[in-house]
């Protein structure tokens, strides 16, 4: 059985089409866990209506605690041998779980990921899928090392578009005290545990990009708050690399974090930069253009 975890907050406009794409899957052995995270619109009512129509659906209503708590709640009660995450405004192909499950078993993998396509309007979804001929396998560490810091990394680092063996999530949960980039603390730890990861090129997941929205999940423009939160997440990743002696990944992560520090300093209003970020910049001052280095140095000296 596959446990499908869907965290839900104020998505009444889009939730029905998401749930329709899940309950109509050609792979029927699903446990569909809907965690209504204190929605103030009709999302909770929609969850209850769908649970009346489909006995596979379990609905949890909780006060608003954020997506980390919602996903953790789903993981805590999941009974399936496999875990899948879906965002409540996205849509999946009717064969999404059938193809992922069969390919995962055939390739003897612990995790599998597919390609995805983003859309703003429902008619943009193309239900035709690509051939399954092109599949690749990796071990968890090489997967993280080789793909984490490439330019086109979205499909590798997000939670959705993947099917996981449940054991990968044993004693692994999302940080409840983090409200931005919370998945960045978790996904690589999950992948590191995998002996084999399978990747297929097939487009099976359709990621919804809201038209005229300034918060388009993965595709949102540069935000200093998000980038600063990502800096914190990378610090956690650096600590993980040190603890597990992952020296190549450690170097890549440190280099990437230093570049982000530089980007934050150049693009962010100085009164918005936390003091510890300025201190980090001072320690890594060679990454900053010379005129900017002087400013950072003077700021530290005449503090």
From TrEMBL:
Pfam families, per the entry: Glycos_transf_2 (PF00535)
Keywords assigned by UniProt, alphabetized: Glycosyltransferase, Transferase
Claim: Protease is one of the keywords in the record: no
Domain named Glycosyltransferase 2-like is located at: 3-138
- Respond yes or no to whether keyword Glycosyltransferase is given for this record: yes
Top-rank taxon: Bacteria
Q: Which Gene3D superfamilies match?
A: Spore Coat Polysaccharide Biosynthesis Protein SpsA, Chain A (3.90.550.10)
According to the UniProt entry, its GO molecular function terms are: hexosyltransferase activity
Q: What is this protein called?
A: Glycosyltransferase involved in cell wall bisynthesis
């Amino acid at each position: 059985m596959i446990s499908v975890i869907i965290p839900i907050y104020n998505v009444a406009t889009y939730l029905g089409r998401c749930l329709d794409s899940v309950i109509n899957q050609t792979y029927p052995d699903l446990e569909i866990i809907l965690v209504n995270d204190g929605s103030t619109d009709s999302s909770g009512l929609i969850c209850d209506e769908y649970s009346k129509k489909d006995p596979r659906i379990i609905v949890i209503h909780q006060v608003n605690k954020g997506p980390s708590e919602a996903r953790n709640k789903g993981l805590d009660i999941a009974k399936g041998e496999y875990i899948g995450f879906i965002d409540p405004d996205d849509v999946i192909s009717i064969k999404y779980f059938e193809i992922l499950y069969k390919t995962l078993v055939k390739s003897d993998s612990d995790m599998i990921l597919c390609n995805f396509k983003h859309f703003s309007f429902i008619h943009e979804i193309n239900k035709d899928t690509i051939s399954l001929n092109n599949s690749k396998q990796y071990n968890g560490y090489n997967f993280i090392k080789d793909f984490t810091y490439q330019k086109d990394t979205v499909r590798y680092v997000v939670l959705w578009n993947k099917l996981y063996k449940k054991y990968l999530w044993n004693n692994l949960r999302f940080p409840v005290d983090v409200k931005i980039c919370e998945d960045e603390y978790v996904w690589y730890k999950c992948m590191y545990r995998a002996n084999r990861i399978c990747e297929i090129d097939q487009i099976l997941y359709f990621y919804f990009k809201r038209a005229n929205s300034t918060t388009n999940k993965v595709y949102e423009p540069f935000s200093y708050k998000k980038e600063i939160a990502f800096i914190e997440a990378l610090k956690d990743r650096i600590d993980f690399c040190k603890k597990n002696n992952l020296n190549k990944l450690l170097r890549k992560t440190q280099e990437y974090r230093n570049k982000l520090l530089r980007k934050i300093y150049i693009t962010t209003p100085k009164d918005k930069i936390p003091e510890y970020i300025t201190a980090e910049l001072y320690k890594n001052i060679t990454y900053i253009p010379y005129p900017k280095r002087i400013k950072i140095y003077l700021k530290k000296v005449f503090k």
